Amino acid sequence: MSGPDFDDFAKLWQQEPDAAEQELMQTLARKARRRARLIGYGDMAWTALIAAIVVATIVAKPDLFTVAAGLLTLAVISWLNWKRRSLRLQLTEAGDPAAFVESSIRAARHNLRRVMLSLAAFPPAILIAILFRISKDTGGRFDHLMEAIAAWALSLRGMIVIPALAGGIVWLVQSGLKFRREIKRLEEVRSAYVEEARLDAAEKG
Amino acid sequence: MAVQRILAAPGVSMTTNGSAEQLFAEVTSGCTGLISRIALSYEADPALRRELVQDILLAIWVALPSYRGDASLRTFVASIAQKRSISHVTKRAREPRQVELPTDLVSAAMAPDEEAVRNDLKQQLVDSIQLLPIPQREAIVLCFEGFSYSEMGQVLGISTNAATLRCQRAKEALKSIMEQRL
User: Fold this and answer.
1) Which residues of A touch B138 (CB under 8 A)?
2) Taking CA atoms, what residue in B is nearest to A194?
3) Are A131 and A148 in contact (CB under 8 A)?
4) Coil, helix or strand for A28?
5) pLDDT beyond 80 at B58
6) Where are the alpha helices (DSSP H) in chain B?
């Protein structure tokens, strides 16, 4: 390399951050610690709240079914908390970078499937809810269905619910696109790792 | 390592809350430069880089209870920082735009010539590192940070031999990019 050599670049790279940058890092560290603690306290508070509700329900109605349902709820919450914690750990230390990319691809695909399923289920669920409502109002008669839907859409409730639902659909579409982009980039990174591993093997051989 | 760790079976949480606190203090006192530079190799935008650094610190805090002490704390931190950074670049809402720096930026700082040249060279170096494919970028950053090939192998999940070869390729690639830019 003409001019500076590799050692010069290493020295340049290793330059310690200036005082302002170091102060900023300390501030960020304090914030991260606070955020982590808040997440921990939030988890604990949520679990305690659910447990208190379950216990209060059992005390108010102490029959076999309530006790069984309450215990099952507590067991599910404990399991979910444990699972969430191990997932968080897995996200931060899932083996080597290539394995991390692989598990990130799986997670992103899972998220995309969840979004697509929600998008597929959303319109029929809304239609069923509207039909159920109209059926309730008309005593099960659907003679003037389109008029009834139009009347509901122009009512105050319709004017609130429809934009909210449209917003929900837009959000789901955006999330789907975001996950697709993420998967595409992760697959590119995975290809780069595969290529490097191939070169490693070729050069060793 | 100044901090005493409790030994236990693999996969079991190895540190108490108290020692996790101490380890985090050790990270914030001794590894912030490393974290900041790893983030720099992935994110050019200063505001987004601050977010990335915070994510890295949070991930380190969460992962510290599982730190077994079978690698140095620096290696552990570098490993988490690399993975968080990969996650950051793949989750970005859109591809980063290449922003032209204003021409008066260096003179506004009134830096002496030598310092201006050094700053310019460092910027060229950072830009070139950011152009490397991620596996080579990881290797070159660890190399610059003075990690041994064995430690690099631990962070990258490859053999020491493979780490040596990858580092060599990364150096060649960086050299080629720098030659084009300088």
Assistant:
1) 97
2) B135
3) no
4) helix
5) yes
6) 17-30, 32-42, 46-63, 73-91, 105-108, 113-131, 134-144, 149-156, 160-181
**What secondary structure letter does DSSP report for A65?**
H
- CA of B144 vs chain A CAs: smallest distance (Å): 5
Cβ distance B32 to A99 less than 8 Å, yes or no, reads no
- Assess contact for A3 and B181: CB atoms under 8 A: no
B94-133 pLDDT, tens digit each: 555 544 444 444 444 445 677 778 788 888 899 999 999 9
Q: Which residue has the higher pLDDT, A97 or B110?
A: A97
Cα separations in angstroms, B43 against A181, B51, B96: 18, 10, 9
Record: contact A25-B86, CB cut-off 8 A: no
Instruction: With H, G, I as helix, E, B as strand and everything else as coil, classify residue A3.
Output: coil
ipTM summary value: 0.75
A3 has a chain B CB within 8 A of its CB: yes
List the single residue in A with minimal CA-CA distance to B122: A12
Contact B80 A92 (CB under 8 A): yes
User: Residue B18: pLDDT band by 50, 70, 90 thresholds?
Assistant: low
CA angle A54, A58, A63 (to 5 degrees): 140
Report the residue from B60, B90, B182 with minimal CB separation from A182: B90
d(CA B159, CA A6): 23
Q: How far is CA B58 from CA B11, B35, B154, in A?
A: 21, 12, 22
Q: Counting every residue, how long is chain A?
A: 205
Q: Could you read off the pLDDT of B156-172 as tens digits, one per residue?
A: 989 999 999 999 999 99
CB B179 to CB A178 under 8 A? no
Of B60, B134, B162, the CB nearest to A189: B134
Sequence-separated (6 or more) residues with CB below 8 Å from residue B42: B52, B85, B86, B88, B89, B130, B137
pLDDT of A188 above 80: yes
Confidence (pTM): 0.76
Contacts of B158 in chain A (CB under 8 A): 96, 197, 200
The rounded distance, in Å, linking the Cα atoms of B113 and A40 is 50
